[in-house]
From TrEMBL:
Top-level division of the source organism's lineage: Eukaryota
Keywords recorded for this protein, A-Z: Coiled coil, Cytoplasm, Cytoskeleton, Metal-binding, Repeat, Zinc, Zinc-finger
Family recorded in the similarity comment: Belongs to the TRIM/RBCC family.
Bias (Low complexity): 73-89
B30.2/SPRY domain span: 513-747
Keyword Cell division found: no
Domain COS positions: 370-427
Originating organism: Sarcophilus harrisii (Tasmanian devil)
Record-given protein name: Tripartite motif containing 46
Biased composition (Basic and acidic residues): 630-639
Length: 759
């Protein structure tokens, strides 16, 4: 029983030692200089907040072409131990800059050193390549002289050395090799000595004999952190410069107007923040362990995925090689067949020409036939022979090889293929799409259009995301709604909520994955449901002056010669008439919205709404808009102006002319058909690209808006005692275009009294 308990105790002690050893090894990585990969010795704090040994910093600056004066002389030993070869064992292995090079660098001028005037023109700024962040850090004109030593890090390194017994015995820095073990240390000399060397460098009767010996150590630190500029102990902290300062620094012009606090306040605030952060980390060790497991799993997946990617690439390249090998065999076989055919033809021609030689072949046979004396037999044999000799004679006279020896037709043009193979690389994800703001808008539905940048990899499909931004959500922003696998470069979002603000974005996807999102685009939806209607030119007069398009969504007023003649006779009492066109839909309830574009070159156009009965009643004949006996705003054509003054007008129009909108005083100047409010009664604003009209039937109000920004232009009362329909009036030339619906075009119909009827 006792042996089991002892074994369990021993096991627990060993586990604790392993944990401590692991923790120490992990901590040791924080105590290594990024230059020499050894523990810090007199570390300096760079402006980028990283640390580096002072000797290493001087060595790096020497390699960069700076002199040794950029170090801090006050922090170096003043005894014979200050020589680089004896101050530290690892410094003896370093290659120092040559003396002539250092003299040349010192004469070139930078920093402040004896012989150089302060305030000289164009002082050299020392740049230090930080080995931790791989960036160039500006040290200023003073170089390393303007940096603080990290005394806290020195203390941590010393405690760590003592806890793990790193480095063994401390050796004397003044002994000749091999050095003896140090027994004393001197804070004034900033070196460690054996007994003999201490007596040698502290002789009796000298000032050094008064130095008090200390225990041997590798780090000689000042009692407090000293200002590198004034060699005084720092007492304040500049929050603006984020730098410790002394009393002299505080009163200098460099820190005038800066927020400076005592070191104690900065110490307490920073210690509180660090303690709180460390407490949070220690209190969430389970989360840290979970994230470590997740990262380890990600590492494993990365290794497996990388291996799979290698195999896929190798397989694809092998496939390309197989295709090339198959193509090579096919092409070589074609060349071989062509070669054999040509050789056969040339061989036959060669054999035929060889038979023409004297005494051989055809010539020999002919010579023997000529020896025949029997005439009938000669004729029989020579007839066929003569034809062969004639062909041979012709071939001899018109000689050319039976085929060409060139194989130029078998040449390959692989320039395009070589370029493709040279440019063969991994497929990249698509770049962030660019929203086409000229074609993207919101009307009855939202139409979103985009394009890829010129040099972006292609996208197989897109993902469109959208959400409302005008709905308060206590838990944070509203969640994105997503539409996956959108083909093409446009998308239609149906049934948006009226009077809302939507934010939309899009990203592309291909085999390599999803790309970056486009910039967010914000779209305002109309304040009410969109009213679909067509133009109906059956009401009013002078139809020959109104040209309605075939789709009945645009109208143009053509003045013609009669109007010009009438304008010439204006002084004789002739008056201009109003040409009107109505919408084929009348509204009897709810809220409705529609938009249109007015040609900026129009002379005078009125856009608005009115009671259908009043419009039909007043425009069946030719109204006189200049006669003082007629004013539709008053509701009658007599001079009795004292009746029903407070009644809402049956019409509400916005007056547009020559690229301007006339806004009446008090919001009523544009409500009438004639627009006669007296001189100076209203003001003008520029005509927007599109005008929006919002009708609230229950409230008896109509609003005119800028259909692009939905900025209100004018709001008027309206008599809604009956069906109300859109109306457009023209005086002189002008044109109006209704905004096309985004979705499917509706059937043409007339809606009166809540009932629909096909036209």
């Amino acid at each position: 029983m006792a042996e089991g308990e002892d074994l369990q105790t021993f096991t627990s002690i060993m586990d604790a030692l392993v944990r401590i050893s692991t923790s120490m090894k992990n901590m040791e990585r924080e105590l290594l200089c990024p230059v020499c990969q050894e523990m810090y010795k007199q570390p300096l704090v760079l402006p980028c907040a990283h640390n580096v040994c002072q000797a290493c910093a001087r060595e790096v600056l020497g390699q960069q072409g700076y002199g040794t004066h950029t170090g801090d002389p006050s922090s170096e030993p003043t005894s014979p131990a200050s020589t680089p070869s004896t101050r530290s064992p690892r410094l003896g292995r370093r290659t120092l800059p040559k003396a002539d090079r250092l003299d040349r660098l010192l004469k070139s001028g930078f920093g402040t050193y004896p012989g150089r005037k302060r305030g000289a023109l164009h002082p050299q700024i020392v740049m230090f390549p930080c080995p931790a962040c791989q960036g160039d850090v500006e040290l200023g004109e003073r170089g390393l002289n303007g940096l603080f030593r990290n005394l806290t890090l020195e203390r941590v390194v010393e405690r760590y050395r003592q806890s793990v017994s790193v480095g063994g015995a401390i050796l004397c820095q003044l002994c000749k090799p091999p050095p003896l073990e140090a027994t004393k240390g001197c804070t004034e000399c900033r070196a460690t000595f054996c007994n003999e060397c201490f007596k040698l460098y502290h002789p009796w009767g000298t000032q050094k004999a008064q130095h008090e010996p200390t225990l041997p150590t590798l780090t000689f630190r000042p009692k407090g952190l000293m200002c590198p500029d004034h060699k005084e102990e720092v007492s304040h902290y500049c929050k603006t410069c984020q730098r410790l300062v002394c009393q002299l620094c505080r009163v200098r012009r460099t820190h005038s107007g800066h927020k400076i606090t005592p070191v104690l306040s900065a110490y307490q605030a920073l210690k509180e923040k660090l303690t709180k952060s460390l407490t949070y980390i220690l209190g969430n060790q389970d989360t840290v362990q979970t994230q470590i497991c997740e990262l380890e799993e990600t590492v494993r997946h990365t290794e497996v995925s990388g291996q799979q990617a290698k195999e896929e690439v190798a397989q694809l390249v092998r496939g390309l090689g197989a295709v090339l090998e198959e193509k090579r065999a096919t092409l070589l076989q074609a060349i071989d067949e062509c070669q054999q055919e040509r050789l056969a033809r040339l061989g036959a021609q060669l054999q035929e020409h060889r038979s023409l030689l004297d005494g051989s072949g055809l010539v020999g046979y002919a010579q023997e036939v000529l020896k025949e004396t029997d005439q009938p037999c000669f004729v029989q044999a020579a007839k066929q022979l003569h034809h062969r000799i004639a062909r041979a004679t012709e071939a001899l006279q018109n000689f050319h090889p039976a085929t060409s020896s060139s194989f130029r037709h078998c040449q390959l043009d692989v320039g395009r293929e070589m370029k493709l193979l040279t440019e063969l690389s991994f497929l990249r994800v698509p770049e962030a799409p660019v929203i086409d703001t000229q074609r993207t808008f919101a009307y009855d539905q939202i139409f979103l259009c985009w394009r890829l940048p010129p040099h972006s990899p292609p996208a197989w499909h897109y993902t469109v995301e959208f959400r409302r931004t005008d709905v308060p959500n206590p838990s944070g922003p509203a969640r994105w709604q997503r539409r996956e696998e959108v083909r093409g470069t446009s998308a239609l979002l149906e049934n948006p909520d009226p009077g809302s603000v939507y934010v939309l974005r899009v990203r592309g996807c291909n085999k390599a994955g999803y790309g970056e999102y486009s910039e967010d685009v914000h779209l305002h939806t109309p304040p009410a449901p969109v009213l679909h209607f067509f133009l109906d030119g059956r009401w009013g007069s002078s139809r020959e002056r109104l040209a309605i398009s075939k789709d009945q969504r645009a109208v143009r007023s053509i003045p013609g010669v009669p109007l010009l003649l009438a304008a010439e006779r204006l002084l004789t009492g002739c008056h201009l008439s109003v040409d009107i066109v109505l919408g084929d839909v009348a509204v009897t309830q709810g809220r409705s919205y529609w938009a249109c574009a007015v040609d900026p070159a129009s002379y005078l156009v009125k856009v608005g709404v009115g009671l259908e009965s009043k419009l039909q009643e007043n425009f069946q004949g030719a109204p006189d808009v200049v006669s003082p006996r007629y004013d539709p705003d008053s509701g009658h054509d007599s001079g009795a102006e004292d009746a029903t003054v407070e009644a809402s007008p049956p019409f509400a129009f916005l007056t547009i002319g020559m690229g301007k909108i006339l806004l009446g005083a008090g919001g009523s100047g544009g409500a009438g058909l004639t627009g006669r409010d007296g001189p100076g009664a209203g003001c003008t604003v520029p005509l927007p690209p599109r005008l929006g009209i919002c009708l609230d039937y229950e409230r008896g109000r109509v609003s005119f808006l800028d259909a692009v920004s939905f900025r209100g232009l004018l709001e008027c009362p309206l008599d809604c005692s009956g069906p109300v329909c859109p109306a457009f009036c023209f005086i002189g030339g002008g044109a109006v275009q209704l905004q096309e619906p985004v979705g499917i075009k509706p059937e043409r119909k007339v809606t009166i009294g809540g009932f629909s009827k096909l036209d």
